[in-house]
Structures are given as C-alpha cells and as structure tokens.
Amino acid sequence: MPTPEAIVERQLAAFNARDLRAFLAEYSDDVLVYRPPGTEPVFVGKDALGRFYATERFNRPNLHASIVNRIVVGDTVIDHERIFGVKDQPFELAVVYGIAAGRIKWIWSYAAQ
Description:
This protein is an alpha+beta fold and 113 residues long. It has helices at 4-17, 20-25, 46-56, and strands at 27-34, 43-44, 64-73, 76-84, 91-100, 103-111.
C-alpha cells in the first residue's frame, strides 16, 4: 500500500496536470472537505468534489500548486501550499489530508487571511 505522503503527492501531480480522473482516484468515495472556520463539510463525496474541480479549477489554464512545506504524521499529511492561476495573485493554504484505506478520506483547508 502506498504511503500517505505518496497518495498526497500523486493527487498534487494530478492537480498540476489538471487530470481530473487521476486526481479523484486518490480520494475515497465518501471524502469530506472542510474549510474552517466552518464546521460543516463544503463537499461531501467524490462526485461533489469532482464537479467543483471540473468547473472551478481544472478549467483554468495557469492552475498550479507548489508545496512550501510538508509534514507527515502517521496517516495525516499537512501541506503549506501556494496556489497559482485561480486569483490575480498566488495565495497560500494549509491543507490537512487524512488518509484511510489508501485514499484521502478528509481534508481541512485553511486559507491565509
């Protein structure tokens, strides 16, 4: 079974290639995505996540993410990401990925204020 870091790295490569099929392959069917300070998931399930990325991200020709820093603690991967091609200027996120059964099961995405 691939390591949690390898799973997150594969989804990052698919993100940067704008390859929706490969990107979604790294997620569990019932993935939950949170954006604090909200406490309810903004996306529930791979289908909802896929619709968002198909219409709001992977249609952007300059989309790219780079990793500023990565921490791996067991089945949790924490990335400090810099995102290009969504806004006029790059923006930064802290993204916490929870891995279970070889897939990304949940995400907490914290945007820089």
